[in-house]
Amino acid sequence: MDELTVGSFYLESIPINVIKKIEIIRGPGSALYGSNAFSGIINIITKTAKDVSGIEFKQRCGIFFEKNAAGKDKVNRQILESRIAVGKIIAENQDIILAGSLRNGEPFDYNVKDETGATGTIPFINNFQNIYSSINYKDTTINVFYWNQKRSKYGLVPIIFTTGDREITSYGFDIRTALMESENLQISSILWFDYLHKSEDINNYPSPDPWLGTRRKMIQDYSGYKLGTDVQLSYKLIENLAGIFGIYYQSVHTSPYYFNNPDGSHEPTALEVNTNYPGHGSYYPLGASAFTKPDDTYDAAPYLQLTYNPSERLNVVVGIRANYNKNYGFAYAPRIGVVLETIKNLYFKILYGSAFRNPSFFELKVNTLNVLQGNPDLKPEKIDTVEAGFDYKLGLNVLRVNYFYESTDDLITRCKTTSAGEYGHSKPTPMYGNSEGQIIQGVESEIKGFLVKKINYFVNGSYIMGVQKQTNAGDPGNKDIYYLTGLLGNAGISGKILPFLRIGTSVQYIGKRKGKALTPTLHEVTVPAYGLWNLMLKVYPISKLSIGVVVNNVTDTKYNLPESIRRYIETIPQADQGRTFYLELNYGL
Fold it and tell me: Of 280 and 187, which is predicted with more confidence?
């Protein structure tokens, strides 16, 4: 679900109707999962054929409102979503599941004011289709996926002229095999392959700025893949001591990151722009491509985790990973945790973890004229985290309180600036570099459970604060982390109030964020807090059939997001169509 050319990840690759459970594991996870398991793990557990055992079908139709020229609401946009899952148990330890989903929605317009001062509207779309299959035969499971997304929003930079449609296509597989299994010893392996191709119409690029001359149509295009394997041995050493030992290897490849002209030729990079470069065809070379040569890297690592249970009330976990990267050599990621049940159902925990993230190809190599410069001397980011908290279980209810402290070093940001003439740029240009890092700490709390039988609820909230380890560039004495959200909260309640009727509602709160924009001069920006309210109602007229009505963003709240990357404008509009009504039909065979 992640790709390492630019370091993005995509949850659209898995059909939502095949997801059984999502586990979010806080804190560094590099000890077991390697690079990119930086501040947490999202573990998506998919359904098996037994969970589906037949056919499940869901049809979802939605409408949302937009203002007409008179400022009044009108219904003129529609969304259609279809989901299907089929599960078949063939014999004992032999089954198959096939699932897919499709989302096709009309675009909605949102008004923007871009970096150049131009105002206008951008039609936003987010349509996708995905297919997933899992085949289980005795001790081997094969998972295969394919997905395609078409999306539009701001393009390369927040400028209307450079905004067009984006298309991503990805496919891959993994093969999991239990090689040996006994009472005290299990050996398993996994082999995976993921491929991703991204193409983005950046419309009339470059921006209307004399440093790059006349605008013209361009397509941004790149692809990449990763191929890896992990062999893991789980062994019960003695009665209260168990261990996991593994060997991991992954190779990663990226294609060139081209900006293509209408005639199919590609632009050179900034460094190549003044050379006799054949790739730009009949067009005057603008130096727009990020990089024009493919690249490869790999990671190899042994890892070890030990779990010790000296008593029923005490659990100790210790782990370490020694990761070797082709470009950066060895990085070590230790982990230790202690969980103690002091009295019945009251658990205290203290955890320490360290993790790292290797720079992406884009952060190392980008060389787009006067827009952005990579840095081949980047070092991996590092994070150390300490957490302490408790869980208390009272019947079917759970209360959790957790304090965390995170210290990052060598954080990769656009903290440097090139000189005019450096790396082929004709004016000072933002450049990636390693900053000293940040210190972030906070408190998280959650309570969830059942008010009465069949009526469940949850309430959670976070208070977060932090500082930079160095002053912000161009802002002497200021160590604030720009646009850090100090307060977050969620609450919800749902359940069957009658045998044939389920209702639910949830709210989300995002606190205000403060930062600074660079133009016209450095000035403070406050992004207001906002809240979102959702409603759901479902009826069950017959067995295996449900009909539901869902209203997202009931109050039609409009909110903005901080433009925290380039910071030439203060905010960008939310990628959200506002109040939306859905009619759902779920049926199983």
Answer: 187
